[in-house]
């Protein structure tokens, strides 16, 4: 069983997931490449090579775990956390730990092995977003889970081990430290000004315009004022919504358009970089917060995080967000 252990100094939780099969002797400093095996477990016809699906959007008349799907969600075959069991919170002298209980799922975005997310149609991307929502709504019913993180690793440098386009979802019994820091910062702003910091951010970015990448009826895509990485890009809903899953149908359509546009610009401008994106949303039990605003953070993998960044918490970004935004605006997606 995986185990969650808490750092007693900074309060950071770490997953010790020995079930993922890496022993000390397995580490030799090299990086396993993205799999180019002839048989992709995510391709239609290979449904038996994944755990049974927990959700699929299918052609009428097709059976579960057979071809005929357009979006398919399966448990991760090598999960970081295990869904069965109790938390069993306990102490070991100074240290706190609990069982590594959670959910780890893979959203296979398309049956077409050759397409990446930005190359799908707007309607196909919208279906992927609905799959995100459906899984979040289902997992929120489990009282053991306090946070659900949706993230995408695209390309070897971003941590992907399979090239078939997919996103992952991990439900955890604790709220991650990064999210807690974001929530605390947003709450501090709200207590001082009685306004959402993200709403204020959108208003200022639209007023100034110099960091805006693109916008539509419901969403704004822009380079944040203090980006950690070159071409780091955020997508925020214009209206105040603290939880991703509370978005309306029209907003999902607009989000699909914004995500396709933004990723398309990044791909053309930067020669199809590897990237991560993360959906930051409200915790499972606090989905209607006046001070928090859900959003997507996209981070192209263009630089390395090295010793200074790890040791200090400072990030060195060689490209200003204003220059990056202008460059992306000039691209025709």
Automatic annotation (TrEMBL):
User: Can you name this protein?
Assistant: Galactose-1-phosphate uridylyltransferase
The cofactor required is: Zn(2+)
In this chain the Galactose-1-phosphate uridyl transferase N-terminal domain maps to 3-176
Which residue intervals make up region (Disordered)?
Answer: 21-45
What are the entry keywords?
A: Carbohydrate metabolism, Metal-binding, Nucleotidyltransferase, Transferase, Zinc
> What is the protein's species of origin?
Eiseniibacteriota bacterium
Q: Quote the EC number.
A: 2.7.7.12
Enzyme class, UniProt record, top EC level: transferase
Locate the active site. Answer: 166
| Gene Ontology molecular function | UDP-glucose:hexose-1-phosphate uridylyltransferase activity; zinc ion binding
């Amino acid at each position: 069983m995986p185990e969650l252990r808490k750092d007693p100094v900074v309060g950071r939780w770490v997953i010790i997931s020995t079930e993922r099969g890496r022993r000390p002797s397995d580490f030799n400093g090299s990086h396993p490449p993205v799999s180019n095996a002839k048989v992709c477990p995510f391709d239609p016809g290979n449904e038996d090579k994944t755990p049974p699906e927990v959700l699929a959007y299918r052609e009428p008349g097709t059976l579960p775990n057979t071809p005929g799907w357009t979006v398919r969600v399966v448990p991760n075959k090598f999960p970081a956390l295990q869904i069965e069991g109790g938390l069993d919170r306990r102490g070991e002298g100074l240290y706190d730990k609990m069982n590594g209980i959670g959910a780890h799922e893979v959203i296979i975005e398309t049956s077409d092995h050759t397409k990446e997310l930005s190359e799908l149609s707007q309607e196909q991307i919208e279906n992927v977003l609905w799959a995100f929502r459906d899984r979040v709504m289902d997992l929120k019913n489990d009282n053991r889970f306090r946070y659900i993180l949706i993230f995408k690793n695209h390309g070897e440098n971003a941590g992907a081990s399979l090239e078939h386009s997919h996103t992952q979802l991990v439900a955890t019994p604790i709220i991650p430290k990064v999210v807690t820091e974001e929530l605390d910062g947003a709450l501090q702003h709200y207590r001082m000004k009685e306004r959402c910091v993200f709403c204020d951010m959108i208003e200022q970015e639209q007023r100034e315009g110099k960091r805006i990448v693109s916008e539509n009826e419901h969403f704004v895509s822009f380079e944040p004022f203090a980006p950690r990485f070159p071409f780091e890009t955020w997508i925020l809903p214009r209206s105040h919504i603290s939880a991703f899953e509370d978005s309306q149908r029209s907003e999902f359509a607009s989000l699909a358009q914004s995500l396709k546009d933004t990723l398309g610009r990044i791909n053309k401008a930067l020669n199809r970089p590897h990237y991560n994106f993360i959906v930051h949303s409200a915790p499972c039990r606090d989905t209607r917060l006046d001070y928090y605003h859900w959003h997507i953070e996209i981070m192209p993998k263009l630089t390395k995080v090295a010793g200074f960044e790890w040791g200090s918490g400072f990030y060195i970004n060689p490209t200003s967000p204003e220059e990056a935004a202008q460059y992306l605006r000039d691209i025709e997606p």
